[in-house]
Amino acid sequence: MGRAPCCDRAAVKRGPWSPEEDDALRDYMQRYGNTGSWITLPKRARLRRCGKSCRLRWLNYLRPDIRHGGFTDEEDAIIYSLYSQLGSKWSLIASQLERRTDNDVKNHWNTKLKKRLATAAAAFSSRSPSSMVPLPAPVAAAHPTPSTLLPLAVPVPVPTVKAETYTYDDFLAPDDALFVAAEGSTSASLSAASSGSNWSAVDNGATNEGGGGGFFADFCTAAGSDLAAADQYLSGFFYPLDPTLSLV
DNA sequence: AAGCCAGTCAACCGCAGGGGT
DNA sequence: GACCCCTGCGGTTGACTGGCT
Fold first, then answer.
1. Is residue A192 part of a domain?
2. Nucleotides on chain C within 7 angstroms of protein Cβ
3. Residue A154 is part of a domain; what is its CATH number?
4. Quick one: which of A126, A101, A89 has its CA closest to A233?
5. How many angstroms separate the CA of A174 from the C1' of C11?
6. Region A72-89 average pLDDT
7. Is A24 part of any domain?
8. CA–CA gap between residue A173 and residue A103 (Å, rounded)
9. Residues A124 and A201 in one domain
10. Is the CB of A112 under 7 A from strand B?
11. Does the CB of A56 fall within 7 Å of any strand B atom?
C-alpha cells in the first residue's frame, strides 16, 4: 500500500509544457494568484495538469521575478561558499541569491560547479599548475586581503536564512595564514587545528552527506602533509562567511 | 548526412514535515 | 494522538541540443 497519487495520472498531461499551457497558467496566476490550493488550481485554470506540475512550472519557470542561466562569478563563489557550509540545501542557497530558483542553482551546481571543483581536486592532486582551475576572479580583485581577519568559529551551526541576499561583503577574503587545517573532518585524516576555515562543514555528514565531502577528502588525501597548500587552494572556492553575521 | 556522445535543464518522483481535523 | 491533506524539497530522469567523428 503506497501513498495515494496526488492526481489521476491517466487524466493529466505530463512532459514538457506547451506555449498554450504556459499562457493559461501565467494568465490565471496574474489574474487571480493561487488563492486556493495547488491541487485544485488545474481545474480552476482549465489545465489538464497535476497541481504539483503547475506549481513547479510557475515557481521555476513562469514566475516573472526569476532569472535563468548566466550565473556570474560572484554568484558561483557564493554558491560554493554556502554549499560548503550548508550542503545541498538548494532552497536555502537559492534564497540567498537574487531571483534564482533552487532548481536552477541545483542544476548549475550539478552541471558546472561540481565538475569545476572535481577538476580542481584532480589538478591539485597532480600538482599540475597548468591544469589548475582559475579561481573566481572578482573575489580576489574586489577584496584584497584585510590585515586582520578573525577565523570562523568551528563548528558553524546550521544556519537559518539571512533576511537579505548575500553579497561578497558577507564573505571573508582568504588569508593564507588563517586558513589552517579544518577540524573534525570525517573522511580525511585532517585534525589538529583548533580554529580556522570551515572546510569541515564540507565533510560534515550532518549537513552534507556525500556532497562536498568527497571533494574535500580528495584535496586532503592529495595534500598529504601539505595541508596549508590544500587550504590555500580550496579557499579560492569556499569563502567563509563573515563571523559577525548571525547565522543561528 | 548520419550516428554517437556529452552537456544542459525542465520536469517528475517520492519523501518529510506542517497544519488542520 | 492519529490521521489526512497539502506543500516544499532534494534526487533523479529523460528530452533536447550541439559538437564531434
1. yes
2. 5-12, 15-16
3. 1.10.10.60
4. A126
5. 33
6. 80
7. yes
8. 28
9. yes
10. yes
11. yes
Nearest to A64 by CA among A15, A91, A108, A29: A29
Does residue A9 form part of some domain? no
Whether residue A158 sits in one domain with residue A50: no
A101/A182 same-domain check: yes
**pLDDT score for A155:** 34
- The answer to whether A4 CB is within 7 Å of strand C is yes
Domain assignment of residue A139, given as a range: 73-234
Predicted local distance difference test score (pLDDT) of residue A152: 31
Q: Is A208 exposed, middle or buried (0-12, 13-18, 19+ CB in 10 A)?
A: buried
Give the sign of the dihedral formed by CA A109, CA A110, CA A112, CA A117.
positive
Q: Is the CB of A38 under 7 A from strand C?
A: yes
Whether A68 sits with its Cβ under 7 A from any strand B atom: the answer reads: yes
Q: Model confidence over A173-210: pLDDT tens digits?
A: 544 333 332 333 322 222 222 223 444 334 433 333 33
Indicate the SS3 state at residue A221: helix
Q: Is residue A245 part of a domain?
A: no
List pLDDT tens digits, range A118-147: 777 776 666 654 445 544 433 333 333 332
Q: How many domains does chain A have?
A: 2
Q: Which residue has the cell 597532480?
A: A126
Strand C atom within 7 Å of A231 CB? no
Q: How far is the CA of A161 from the C1' of B4 (A)?
A: 45
Which of residues 53 to 92 on A have a Cβ less than 7 angstroms from any strand C atom? 55, 88-92
Q: Helices marked H in A97-226 — which ranges?
A: 102-108, 114-126, 137-142, 199-202, 213-223
